[in-house]
Structures are given as C-alpha cells and as structure tokens.
Amino acid sequence: MIEKGKMSAFQVAIILYATVLATAILIVPSLTSRIAGKDLWLSPVWASLVGFFTVYDAIQLHKLYPGETIIQYCQHMLGSFLGKVIGFLYLISFVYFCGIILREYAEFIVGSFLTATPMVVVIGGLTFVCAVAVRGGVEVIGRSSQVFSGLFIFPLLLMILMLLPDWKISNMFPVFEHGIMPSIIGATTPQAWFSEVFLMTFFLSFVTDRLRMIKYGYVTVFVILLTLVITNLTALFVFGKMTPMLVYPVMNAASYVNIADFLEHLEAVVMAVWVAGAFVKINTFYYALVLGTAQWLNLSDYRSLVLPYGLIITLFSFWSLPNLQVMVHLLETSIPFYLTLLFTVIPSLLLLISYIRNKLRQARKTVSVRDET
Questions:
Q1: Amino acid 259: pLDDT
Q2: How far apart are CA 101 and CA 224, in angstroms?
Q3: Secondary structure class of 298 (helix, strand, coil)
Q4: What architecture does CATH give domain 9-372?
Q5: End-to-end CA distance of the chain
Q6: Beta-carbon contacts of residue 153 (< 8 Å; ≥ 6 apart)
Q7: Nearest alpha-carbon partner for 23 in 228, 226, 199, 184
Q8: In the structure, what pLDDT confidence band is assigned to residue 126 with cuts at 50, 70 and 90?
Q9: Which stretches are transmembrane (predicted)?
Q10: Higher-confidence residue: 328 or 82?
Q11: Which pLDDT band, with edges at 50, 70 and 90, does 127 fall under?
C-alpha cells in the first residue's frame, strides 16, 4: 500500500466538514440568494439530499472494492484503458480545483485584509504549508485538521452568537413568496459543495473504525446542513434583500458586531475561519491529487509528487481565473456542474454498473447450477 498511516472516523468527519464549509460559508449565501431570494435558508435542505446520496455511493463502492480509491476501481470495473481515462479526468480536475480554491483564498485575503501583499506570496505561503502536511501523510493531515477545524468552528459560532442582536427575523417573510421552486433551483449551487464529501473515498482505506465511519459520514452531512442553514439565515436576517449584492455576506456581517463599544469589527475572526478552513480544504484536494496520481502511475510512493504538484497548482491558481468577477461567475455556473458530475453522477453510475454485473453473475451461477442438476 502506498500510504501506511491510519486515522480515525472522527478525523475524516472533521476533514469533510471543513472541506465543504471552508468556501461554502463565505460564498454560498450570496450565490444562493440570487436565485432563492428570501428562501435561501431552505436551499441547503434540498442540496443535502445530494450529500447523503454521495456518502452512500462512497461507502458502497468502498465495500465492493475495499482498500481502493476511485482511481483504482475505475480500472477494475471499466477496463484498463477506459478506467485510466476516467482516472486522468479526475486528476486533471483535482489540479483545477486546487487552483480554484487557492485563488478563492487569495482573492479574499488580499482583497479584504492584506491589500498591499502580492497575491503570489499569499498563495505560495499556503501552498508550502499544505505541501508539508500532505507530504507527512494521512496522520499529519488528520491531526492538523483537528487543530485547524477547531480554529474554524469556534470563531464561526462566536461570531453568529454576537450577531444575534442585529437579527431582523422579519427579513425572511413572506416564506415561499414565489412558491417552493426558487428554493429548489437555488439548491443547485450548494449541492455541488455537498458532493465534495465523496473525497472520503481517498481516506476510507486508512480508517481504523470503518463501521463507525458509515454513521459519521451521514452525521457530517447533517451537521453541514445545519451550519449552512444557520449561516444563510444569519446573512438574511442581517442584510435582507441586500444579500445577493454582497460577495462575502458573512465577512460583511462581522463588521456589524458591536458589544458595549468594546468588542467590534470582527473581520479578523472571519479571516481566521477562512485561513483554517482553506488549509484543510486544500490539504484534502491536494492529498487526493498526489495519492491518485501515484495510484494511476502505479508508483510505490506519492511523496515525490508533492512539491512538483505544489508548483503546478500555484500556477493554475493564476491561469484558471483572471479576476474576482470571473471566479464568482464560474462558482455560480460551471463549477457546480463539474463537481456534481465528478463526485456524485459518475460514482453513482459506477455503483449501478457494479450492481448490474453482480446480478448478471448471480443469474449465470443460478443457470449453471440448474444445468448441472
């Protein structure tokens, strides 16, 4: 086995939680509200159905092909050539997504805080730190994710609690002003983020308590659902109809915090949440990329790929997106389609193919037994 490290089901759950929400909590409320309007809080409920279904796909495929990732069992199911082609599609996509995530991180940090810092410094710094973690293996990724996820979760909860005095619940009424369809259509954006839970397939082989992982997988999707609903409600209650006009509603909401004229302007809290979440998310995609490449090339170790890929994804972060406006447009249109295709649709088709093959094998065995008797 290329990777010999081990991790717990809880660590995988923490990784998935931060991976999905790292970018979702800042961008999804705005993107969803442009379609769903005042019903943006309901869209994550419909979107979570994709998350639950994706967890089911990942777990069932792992049961059929234990110890393998989608890069490997594609070749067993579809043959060497077609399996290699699909595996290569995933690897190219991981490079692209790593570049997108790095650029999202840099656009937010440079645009909101470090305005005089060159973007290449911000991106290069995070890439280097993530490369060190990925080179350390799943145990380093798991333990560091536990630490950074704490920095991700608690500041977010603190900020939401401090915003309670600024909530205007009347902003959500009337509910279903234009029917239920806007909230369902609005789910097309967050459902792409929910589909990212399929990345658990790259960690399942190293989990020590795999039976518990099944429960943790579904619980993680549910907790992500609750977090997105609360985040969307917070943006709606604070900004109302202005929410679609803001790129980062949560960051803008942090500036509203004012407790006794002492504790105010908590934008730095949002930056801490963003940095911690981005670290975990890039680690997840980065590790899937290098491990998948090693499996695709039948290498004995993936560590020699970490630094070269670090340079490649850094370059892609500049090549893939010219500016913030293009990034927001892609996140609203094409990227949700690609994420859902790669992490939900293709795995579902692979699982369907496996079930059909098993049924045909059972039917052939039954026929052969009857012929013998």
A1: 67
A2: 19
A3: coil
A4: Up-down Bundle (1.20)
A5: 44
A6: 17
A7: 228
A8: very high
A9: 7-28, 40-59, 80-102, 108-134, 146-164, 184-204, 216-239, 268-290, 302-320, 335-356
A10: 82
A11: very high
Supply the pLDDT for residue 265.
63
Query: Phi/psi at 298 (nearest 5 deg)?
Result: 60, 40
Percentage of the residues of the chain whose pLDDT score is greater than 90: 60
Q: How many CA atoms lie within 13 A of 45 on its CB side?
A: 12
Instruction: For residue 207, report the phi and psi dihedrals to the nearest 5 degrees.
Output: -80, 130
Nearest to 203 by CA among 291, 274, 143, 129: 291
Check pLDDT > 90 for residue 275.
no
DSSP string, 60-128: HHHHHSTT--HHHHHHHHH-HHHHHHHHHHHHHHHHHHHHHHHHHHHHHHHHHT-TTS-HHHHHHHHHH
- Section 100-123 average pLDDT: 90
The C-alpha atoms of residue 197 and residue 79 are separated, in whole angstroms, by: 26
**Residue 248 Cα distances to 23, 212, 359, angstroms:** 10, 36, 49
The Cα–Cα gap between 28 and 135 comes to 31
Which are the contacts of 272, defined by CB distance < 8 A and separation ≥ 6? 151, 155
pTM of this prediction? Answer: 0.93
Instruction: Record the tokens describing residue 284, joined without a space.
Output: 């997840």
Average pLDDT, the chain: 89
Query: Between these two residues, 4 and 187, which has the higher pLDDT value?
Result: 187
Q: Cα dist. 60→11, 138, 172, 182 in Å?
A: 20, 22, 39, 33
Burial-class residue 270 by CB neighbours within 10 Å (0-12, 13-18, 19+). Answer: buried
**What are the CA-CA distances from residue 156 to residues 11, 12, 240 (Å)?**
20, 20, 20
- Tokens 């110890």 locate to 67
Give the relative orientation of helices 267-296 and 119-136 as an angle to the nearest 10 degrees: 50
Q: Which of 336, 285, 291 is nearest to 95 (CA)?
A: 285
